[in-house]
Amino acid sequence: MTNGNLESAKKHTSLETQYLVTKQENIMGASLETGVIVIDGLTAKVATFITLKNPESNNLLSFDTVLLKENDLWKVDYRQTLNNLSVQPFGEVINSLRAIGDVINKKLEQQMPLIENQIKSFSNQLIRQLDEFRHQLEKTNPTEKP
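Predicted structure:
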C-alpha cells in the first residue's frame, strides 16, 4: 500500500475484504515497520507503525494489522485493519472519555447510599401525605352506615 501497488496488496488481503483495497494517498511513500505478532488460532494481530512522508500531519501512525488464515495462508483482514487505523487519531479522545466515565462511575457508586436513603425518605413522605389525604377525604365525605 505504501508503494501504491494495489494488485499486490489485494493478493495479500482476504477474499472478503479485497474490494475495500483502494489507493491511500496519505500513506504513499511512507515507511512501514512491524512489531509484535500475536497469533490466536486462525487470527493474528501485527503491531504496525507507519511514518508518514507528509510532515504537516501526524508523523507516526500505530495500529494493529489484523490477519486471518485463509487456505493455509495469512491474509490481511482489511476491514478490521481499516477500523483499527481509523480509530487511531481519536485514541486520546476515546481514552479521555473512558477516564471520564470511570470517574463518573466511581462518584456514582460513592453517592448510591445517599441516593437510596433519599429515595426511601421520599417514599415514606409520600406514604404519609397519602394517608393524610385519605383521612381528610374521610372527614369531608363520611360514609353512610346503614
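Summary: The CA atoms of residues 54 and 83 lie 22 Å apart.
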